[in-house]
């Protein structure tokens, strides 16, 4: 039970209004749900109701379908990403397994298969609807929509949340790659104290 007393002075009225505002904010966040709802996620969800954002990457729409930070997944994370024509991921690498399923559109996978001090000139692989491909651990890569319609992919990664190293170009040394952790879609909800059960 909450008791509020209102005095006649304006300062006590301001304090009471402030107190009521804080209480309402607390209860609205607790009852309406936070943007980081690890607990209370229904088993079955409508994908059209899941949040999506570009996270500042031009032409990208990202949706975490099931993830470690947002949903408490421990071994796997699934994303749905849509790239407008010309849009691309940054050149990047990460120490997890990654599998793509192309749902619609056309594009190009750029994959640096060299393991020297720089990624080097990438091999280009055309991708289209019904293509599936995997990225070897720590190989620098980029996915780009080189078609004329949206490119949509389902992405499955292991060992989330992932640490991503980005490159300015294919000849930037691995030691100069920039670490991005947590990644854009995990920033708001990431907590340092995540523990492994093993």
Describe what you observe in this structure:
The protein is built from two helices and eleven strands, in the order αβαββββββββββ. It is an alpha+beta fold. The strands form three sheets. The chain has a five-stranded antiparallel β-sheet. Strands 3-10-11 form a three-stranded antiparallel β-sheet, with no helix packed on it. The longest helix is centred in the first third of the chain and has 23 residues, at about 10-30. The radius of gyration is 22 Å and the shape is globular. Mean pLDDT is about 75; it is low at about 1-10, about 15-35 and about 195-198.
- What's the rounded overall pLDDT mean? 76
Secondary structure tally, helices = 2
Instruction: Output the helix-strand order.
Output: HEHEEEEEEEEEE
Total DSSP E strands: 11
Structure class = alpha+beta
The largest sheet has its strands arranged as: 1-2-9-4-7
* Largest beta-sheet characterization: 5 strands, antiparallel
Low-confidence stretches: 1-8, 14-34, 193-198
Radius of gyration: 22 Å
**Which overall shape is indicated by the principal axes computed on the Cα atoms?**
globular
Terminal CA distance reads: 42 Å
Provide the helix percentage: 10-25%
Q: What fraction of the residues are assigned to beta strands by DSSP?
A: 25-35%
């Amino acid at each position: 039970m909450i008791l509020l007393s209102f005095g006649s002075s304006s300062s006590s009225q301001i304090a009471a209004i402030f107190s009521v505002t804080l209480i309402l904010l607390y209860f609205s966040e607790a009852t309406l749900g936070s943007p980081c709802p690890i607990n209370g996620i229904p088993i079955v969800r409508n994908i059209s109701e899941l949040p999506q954002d570009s996270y500042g990457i031009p032409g990208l729409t990202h949706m975490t379908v099931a993830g470690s930070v947002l949903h408490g997944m421990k071994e796997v994370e699934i994303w749905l990403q849509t790239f407008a024509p010309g849009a691309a991921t940054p050149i990047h690498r990460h120490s997890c397994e990654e599998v793509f399923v192309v749902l619609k559109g056309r594009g190009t996978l750029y994959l640096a298969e060299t393991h020297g001090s720089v990624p080097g000139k990438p091999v280009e692989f055309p991708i289209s609807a019904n293509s599936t491909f995997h990225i070897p651990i720590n190989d620098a890569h980029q996915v780009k929509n080189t078609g004329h319609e949206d490119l949509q992919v389902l992405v499955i990664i292991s060992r989330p949340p992932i640490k991503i190293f980005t490159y300015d170009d294919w000849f930037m040394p691995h030691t100069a790659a920039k670490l991005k952790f947590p990644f854009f879609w995990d920033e708001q909800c990431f907590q340092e104290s995540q523990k492994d059960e093993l």
